[in-house]
Design brief:
Shape: globular
Number of strands: 10
Largest sheet: 10 strands, mixed
Structural class: alpha/beta
Mean pLDDT: 88
Distance between the termini: 86 Å
Radius of gyration: 26 Å
Order of helices and strands: HEHEHEHEHEHEHEHEEHHEH
Low-confidence stretches: 1-37
Strand content: 15-25%
Helix content: 40-55%
Amino acid sequence: MFKKKWLMGMMTGLLAFSLAACSGTDKTSGDNSDKEKKEYKPEKAISIMAPSGAGGGLDTAARMVAKFASEQGLVEQPITVENKPGGGQVLGTTEFATQEVGNDYKLMLASTPFVLNFIKKEGTATISFRDVTPLARLQVDYGVLVVKADSKFKDLKSLMDAMKKDPSSLTVSGGGAPGTWDYLNAILVADSNGIDGTKVKYTAYDGGSEAVTALLGGNADVLTSDLSSVAEYLKSGDVRVLGISSTERVDGEFSNIPTYKEQGFDVVTENWRGLYGPKDMSPEAKAFWEETLKSIVESDEWKAELEGLGIQDGYMNSEDWIASMKAEEESYLKLYKKLGLAK
């Protein structure tokens, strides 16, 4: 009897010890996991690659991320911006996707042409957003058609009337090859006015800043770009913006710019910009940057800078952004087939 009671007592004790040990292990594991997730921080310098030249919209956006991440104490390590122009983002995005796999310390800030380059037939990229790690969409910039301040064109209608009369009489400069977003911003407006887009004299440059320089230097009559790329020239009085591709007029100091639609051209386009990590980025680094970027875009300082540049908030988390890019790719592919620009 004593032996039986002793054996039952020992088994009860072992069971209690086992449960306590399991409970302790689970609790410790959970605590460590949460602790590691919360305390993850980059341990060395970070580089953000902008697949365009200095001074354009991508470069500006990349430097904004670097600036606010540091100023707000979200990232303690240095953040530099590297420019890699070429092929309307093709060179930089391809290099990033193929050479930085698994590198948690390299990021890339790209825009709508990253989606377009994969589906157009000329100068096509072999990689897409599926070959990198989307972290967050950050902002939306609208297209503009711009002339020099002393141009004879005072509104969009007068420009389109001249272009309709002789499509090749005017040179349009843009920061990307035919089929890229800058190109579409101009050609879609022309098409809505009955102008054959294939006859428009379009000159491509590697980035918005080079295209602006061409306009200011007299090497183009019209510039197709986004508002942020020409904001400083508009403020200085060097250029005149004839129209903007937003659904409604933008808020703030650029609210005097009429939309394409209100001038009779039923065209709405937008150029988003967002941050990517490389393929096979670690889950810890991905989570860190998703949280960091959300904090940045919610700050008053970020919002104020966007307003000063004429850029709209376009934040999307990773999951929503991926879904948006898939839908966008499908929609643009239909348009490219119509224009004869699809793969």
